[in-house]
Amino acid sequence: FGALAAFLAPALLWAGIANVPTRWSDGLGNWRATSENNSAVVTQQDGAVVMMFKGTTGMSTPPSTWSFLTVDQEASYGMFAGDLYSIGATAVSFRVTGIAAVLSKMTLLMESQDGQIWTYPLPVVQPDQSLVYRVTMAHGPGWWDAEGYAGNAADFTAALGQVKRLELKVLRGASRSSHGCAVDTFKLIGPAISGAAIYEGEQPGTMLKIRAEAVSAAAGEKAMLPSVVAATATAPAGSYRIEDAAAPQTYRLKAY
């Protein structure tokens, strides 16, 4: 692509020192699972966390019980708890695939250090269907609702600054057969990386391409990170914006 001859003026770069996210490539990672009445079994399969409600015999439908996938403040690498407000977390995203039968309900839950509970209802996946959920970390109509009290936007912002745990609640469906879901590619989303690119020198092409590479993971964990996110700018100068930077993550910017 020729020699690098561009100057980058980034408006925002990540230099995270805590709460470094993982893409869940190693399965459960720091996430733990709990289940009411031991009604579900959780395993790791092909880099995903698989939760299956046990099948039952007889004619009666088993009672609806919740099972949970939780990450809390006791986790180390890959934790999603702590001060998510100051690091600029804007959303969380993850994929859920339905298995065998329809679940009754799914909810994303956030608990703060002072015990406030906030919930975000999720559309339920159908069997053999995969849905990618993107949950905005902001309070508003149809978004996060407080449990047990009248929470407002200021309350939610305060809670986001002292997150104790995040939890995916899964309610079994009205089926006697074994059924559940697989969850993977869970990541914390940060703000965009944006700025201006200024080119000096001979320019044989028509576009200047900006490339951001995640570099903050340990050497043995590089494969877990999205290696490249890209944007383009018109030569000889122009603005660029790279969306969905994992937060907080350190990036190296390149231009060619």
Fold and architecture overview:
By secondary structure, the chain is mainly beta. 3% of the residues lie in helices and 44% in strands. It is built from 1 helix and 17 strands. The chain has a 6-stranded antiparallel beta sheet with strand order 2-5-11-7-8-10. Strands 3-4-12-6-9 form a 5-stranded antiparallel beta sheet, with no helix packed on it. Strands 1-13-16 form a 3-stranded antiparallel beta sheet, with no helix packed on it. Residues 1-27 and 218-226 have low confidence and may be disordered.
Give the percentage of residues in beta strands. Answer: 35-45%
- Report Rg: 21 Å
How many extended strands?
A: 17
The main β sheet shows up as:
6 strands, antiparallel
How many DSSP helices?
1
* Widest sheet, order of strands: 2-5-11-7-8-10
Mean of pLDDT: 75
What general form does the structure show? elongated
**Order of helices and strands, N to C?**
EEEEEEEEEEHEEEEEEE
The secondary-structure class comes to: mainly beta
Give the end-to-end Cα distance, rounded to a whole number of Å. Answer: 6 Å
Low-confidence runs of at least 5 consecutive residues: 1-27, 218-226
Instruction: Classify the helix fraction into a percent range.
Output: under 10%
